[in-house]
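sorry to bug you again but im stuck and you know this stuff better than me. what follows is a protein written twice so to speak, once as letters and once as structure tokens for the fold. mainly i need to know what kind of three dimensional shape the backbone takes. anything you notice is useful, everything is just below:
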Amino acid sequence: MLGVGGSQMYMNTDINSMQVDGPGTEVMSSLMQPLLILAALAATALLVRALRHGQRTGGAERTELLLAGTLTLVSVFIVFNKVGSPQFMVWLGPAVALGLVHHWRSWRTPAIMLIAIAVLTFFIYPLFYTELSHDNPAMALVLTVRNALLVVLMLWSARRLYWLGSKRPTDELVTKES
């Protein structure tokens, strides 16, 4: 966007995709796959930890673990993917929708974030994709805010999964009643 160090956006006609090139892009591109694998393993470890804790203590409910684990893994796959396809945002919907049905209060925050992510994604594509691909600063800001919200959603879900793996059975009663 700013052209720092000769960085640029260009259309890669071989794969019909807009790409970013500049200093550090090759290094980051090669790191994204290992980072994705490490993040997915960390999310899986959080889920296994929560499942084991729940089995030992009668703590977290399996449905809540499945929903939080799904949202954590899906958001990890989106955040750490080198491709930023707008269609990926649809992957988040089912986990959040089922979370709302399962426990409205606990899932309000990710639902609000997902609505904001969806609206911002709609502005990015299809409404103003041409402007983004032609280095429009406002659209770069919209994309940055959307991506930051994705990271926050990922962190929220990982924190929720960690909490579910740490809670005592009595915490469930307190959560359900509030």
About this structure: Residues 89 and 103 are 22 Å apart (CA to CA). Residues 25-57 form the longest helix (33 residues).
